[in-house]
Amino acid sequence: MSTEMGEEEGKEPVAVDEESSLTSVIRRISVLISHSNSTKVFHGKWQLIRGKLEELNSGLKAAENCEFGENFMSSEMIPDILVTVNESYDLANRCINLTYSGKLLMQSDLDIICSQIDSHLKKLTGIYNAGNLTLGSAIVVSKPSFGCSKDDMKFYVNDLLTRMKVGGSDMKIQALKGLSEVTMEDEKYVMIVIDTGEIVGILVEFLEFTETEIQEESMKTISAIAGFDLYKGVLVGAGTVAPLIRVLESGSELGKERAARILQKLTENSDNAWLVSAHGGVTALLKMCTTNNGDQSDIISPACGVLKNLAGVEEIKRFMIEEDAVPAFVKLMRSKDESLQINAIEFLQLMASGDESIRRIVVREGGIYSLVQILDPKASFSSKTREIALRAIEIFCFNSSTSLSSLMGYGFLDRLLYILRSSEVSVQESALKVGIRLCGISEDTKKAMGDANFMPEFIRLLDARTHEVRELASEVLSSMISVPKNRRKLIQEECNISRMLQLLDPGEEKSGNKKFLLSILMSLTNCNSGRKKIAHSNYLKNLEKLAETDVSDAKKILRKLSTNRFRNILNGILRS
């Protein structure tokens, strides 16, 4: 079948024993791959042959970079490969010049070439697996530079694929490191990996390897792929979930962490939750979170993340309750690691959403006390952790008088006041929202807040930098002054009323919510001292301007201010 292997047609075929070095074979295969792109028929067959030739060439290049590679391969393999290459070149010429004698015969010849290349690949794999080749100084084909062509990227990925398939442990690890590096740097490589198809299956197989480093390195690439919603189904379809769970059960510490992070990404799609549960994932994850005593946050945090994703499925949630997940996570809330505390709180919030029985378990296990401790001024918790704790307190405590009583008994009001005085804006917002909820519970709660000196802080926050805080402060203040004692405290400081009137000016940089400010002023007009201080304020004109623009609450306040002394001044406004 063979005719030539030179670059120009018409030359004599290169004899098998000439230039039969490994380097020469690699060069000739590269020429053949390029030459076969010009074939005019049997495109599918030639595409298959090119893929196999690229794989073979990558394996040979890897052997070239190994110690004694030439010795182990030249005696038998190289001459056989040269025969196949020469025959392939002859067939390529016939398919370019359309000089083949029959379609069926050519198809048969191409099938024979495919089988021969497969045989070479099998022998090459056997040599690697026997450990006859070890890495020398040169390891892998150089990574393509940034902005290279897609063909260069594909060639590099195929080279890594071959090394993963035929190499020993060291070569597999080197190839996996190269693959993870490019897939984490450039999503185009992720697309090439998916398009190649075979790579995902090999990565999944590596999860079952006993060599820890091969497991760990394969998960780096799987994690990069799992970061794309479009490809999560490919990973799940390739059977990734089951071996990942086995890594959770018996892998290295780093392996467990990486496995949990991959599962966290995969279970963002709730359809995959059942698959994790079916392979025993829930039990393995709970064990990771409850037996490490909070000392391994790198492992526990992603495991918590997976469980949070699974908690949305009611049946899985019930199973977790039966496995005593709630007491375990209440205990985890007391961890010294803030990331674990946050994960534990968020998990319990999800579990307790709409479920009073779980709230009761949290309370019974000391969850409220743990949350209040996070707000302790002496503790060095971050603003984020305090904010999350405040949101959790709303969920766990405000729907039950018993829980609320426990909350107050732990000194919650003192903690809340500290947050209002000294925290960042985001935490202040959360604290003000809690204050609004507290005011909605009962008049006694409002009195308790007044006695604890919340009023001056709410008034101070009317001048806060952010509109959201100013608005929340005016809302909670309008609720607080429905209690006469609180109202009197507000009126005692004349500057309080003047500042609220000042904030009614549309041109005021820190204008507040007029609805709540007017509500507060309306409440203050129910007593003589309140009416008097409003009437004598230098900022009364702002109220008058609002009345002139038909703001009904402003008009009502001015009517209440109308006494014999002021009636003549205000009559013109009130008739409008």
3D structure, described in words:
The chain is an all-alpha fold. Helix content is 72%, strand content 1%. Strands 1-2 form a two-stranded antiparallel ribbon. It is elongated. The termini are far apart.
Total count of helical runs of at least 4 residues: 35
| Approximate strand percentage | under 5%
Provide the structure class.
mainly alpha
Major β-sheet profile = 2 strands, antiparallel
N→C terminal distance: 108 Å
Q: How many β-strand stretches?
A: 2
What level of helicity do the residues show? over 70%
Give a topology summary:
Elements: H1 22-36, H2 43-64, E1 66-67, H3 69-74, H4 77-97, H5 103-129, E2 134-135, H6 150-166, H7 169-185, H8 187-196, H9 198-206, H10 212-226, H11 229-237, H12 241-250, H13 253-266, H14 273-278, H15 281-291, H16 297-310, H17 314-322, H18 325-332, H19 338-352, H20 356-364, H21 367-374, H22 383-397, H23 401-409, H24 412-422, H25 425-439, H26 443-451, H27 454-460, H28 467-480, H29 484-492, H30 494-502, H31 514-524, H32 528-535, H33 540-548, H34 552-561, H35 567-575
Antiparallel strand pairs: 1-2
Short description:
The chain is an all-alpha fold and 576 residues long. It has helices spanning 22-36, 43-64, 69-74, 77-97, 103-129, 150-166, 169-185, 187-196, 198-206, 212-226, 229-237, 241-250, 253-266, 273-278, 281-291, 297-310, 314-322, 325-332, 338-352, 356-364, 367-374, 383-397, 401-409, 412-422, 425-439, 443-451, 454-460, 467-480, 484-492, 494-502, 514-524, 528-535, 540-548, 552-561, 567-575, and strands at residues 66-67, 134-135.
